[in-house]
Design goal:
The protein is α+β, with helices and mostly antiparallel strands and 296 residues long. It is built from 8 helices and 16 strands. Strands 8, 9, 10, 11, 12, 13, 14, 15 and 16 form a 9-stranded mixed sheet that branches. A hairpin with a 2-residue loop joins strand 4 and strand 5. It starts with a strand and ends in a 5-residue tail after the last helix. Bound molecules: 4'-deoxy-4'-aminopyridoxal-5'-phosphate (PMP).
Length: 296
Amino acid sequence: MCPIKGHFMTQKIWLDGNLVDSKDAKITVFDHGLLYGDGVFEGIRVYSGRVFELDAHITRLYESAKAIRLVISMSQADLARAVRETVEANSVREGYIRLVVTRGVGTLGLNPFVCEKSSIFIIAGSIQLYPEELYEKGMKIISATTVRNHPLAIPPQVKSLNYLNNILAKIEALDSNVPEAVMYNHEGYVAEATGDNVFIVKKGVIHTPPDEAGALGGITRGIVIKLAQQENLQVVEKNLTRFDLYVADEFFLTGTAAEVIGIVEIDGRIIGDGKPGPVTSLLRRRFFEYAHGKEK
Ligand code: PMP
């Protein structure tokens, strides 16, 4: 989902309490994170040397863990400290962190309770998800046929290590030579993109699906809603259909890796005049300023 470029040989990985060289950062084949995708994770940005929205990411991680009955073997405060320590150890000023908690070492059976202790690792590197040109010109995407997980299956609000649902939609996008796809829920309403939340602008009003539509509670999404409201823009959370996307005046995605990116075409339908619109551009700018601590 997010290509982390590390510092290769010099990169230090935080692994279960120790900072180790990346070549020594290994976990066992009996870890249920690997055997079953049994675990949770966060992707977090570092802007101007500061870990962005760390408390919100830590809260979401512990809520994801609670939902799958995974006990994280350290306190939220200690884990936040470990994240900062990893960033400092790698001298990351503009970058990306991957924080992963797995169920830990168990047997080959499904039973998660035989795993005595969760395993935790933190990678701090750099990232550029999309080239700058794509932000200027806007992105073309498709609608995926793969339906987002039903809320009574693995709840989409859980950021679990099992991303196969989204990966199948991503494959559909890549097969169509586009980088992203919109996923719909079991009722046919827009849920989210494979790694981002969805927004449209129609007649000056911003619309975004509620989390209940099957989206991860995006941290970028929350900030963008706040920034839009500060600009006196109206934001309405409501169910969106494929038709709503097709006839939107503007369309953009938000996410930790992508930040704010304009969508200019979906399923062959051109959005607006085929360029990222004014609200998208304004919110992208405001997000950059907010992230780098240069708010108005
Ligand atoms: N939905 C999914 C499925 C994601 O993986 C992500 C990225 N973590 C998002 C939405 C956006 O969330 P955030 O803004 O917290 O990165």
